[in-house]
Amino acid sequence: MAALVDRPRCGPPLTATVEDIAALIAEITTGTVTWTAAEGATWLVEYRNVRIGPEQVRRRLNAAGIVWGRTRGVPAGKRDATARTRARAELMAFQKGPRTA
What we know:
By secondary structure, the protein is mainly alpha-helical. The protein has a domain at 11-69. It has four helices and no strands. It has helices spanning 18-30, 37-48, 54-63, 81-94.
């Protein structure tokens, strides 16, 4: 039976450990750059020698409470009617008038 002992596999580990994800979270939270799941997966390969897909990175970060979504450029609350009227007047002043030959 000694001949049937498994040898250690070559290459990077198949799964990310808690320590790997904690290192990724530390890296994400210390910077000012917004990360994508694909960038997190690339970082894990380069710095931790762990190869997992972006979807798995997203799931692991989501489980740790780190989520992100598409940034919306919508102001909160109702529009101010006077500000809207003033902006429309400024826009009309900048629009091109009829061309003269």
